[in-house]
Amino acid sequence: MKKLFILPLFILFTLQISAQNVEEAEAILNKMSVKYKSMKAFKATFSWELNSQVENIEESFSGKVTVKDNKYHLDLGDQEIYNDQRTVWTYLKDVNEVTITEYEPDPEELTITQMYSIYEKGYKYLYLGEETIEGVVYDVIDLTPEDRELSFFRIQLRVSKKDSIIKSWKIFERNGRIYTYKIKDFKPNIEVSDQDFVFNTEKHPDVEVVDLR
Prior knowledge:
Elements: H1 2-37, E1 42-52, E2 57-68, E3 71-75, E4 79-83, E5 87-92, E6 97-102, H2 112-115, E7 123-133, E8 136-145, E9 152-160, E10 166-173, E11 178-188, E12 208-211
Parallel strand pairs: 6-12
Antiparallel strand pairs: 1-2, 1-11, 2-3, 3-4, 4-5, 5-6, 7-8, 8-9, 9-10, 10-11
């Protein structure tokens, strides 16, 4: 009888803890979202890593990104991507060629412009606890997409407890691949114009234009 009595109490206690973790995750995510949405624009340097034990893959690169609302300019060194939410320009520096396409949102695409608001629709979330990295405390949160047809099944965010800025996020794919993005330098509320997210052919003499629109 004691075992039968203890089991429902244990289940109830577990459910209460889970509910608290969901509420805490939501509070942290909401605070983070408000922080980013209040910024005029921001710039960051970042690193990207791909690891897969199944495929024996280890790849990495670094880059810079400038963001205003959902517009962004991505500089990866050998190529740049400009996206003003209508048109995408992909510039290959070594061949001095730019490819122009219409912007078509992809539900599989996960960029820094989405990380601070992606949880708002189609995701469940859970607070996992705190983690200290180089003396800085971060809140760790798991996001699980409700759409089971997506190629990924989990996103893990690390958010600074001090200023609600995203430190890193990991994307776990069903094929065993893990993508890790880490923010190394973050500059909020910078001054940019909408033209900063449009490729300027005048600044690139003799550029070859491939227009696929």
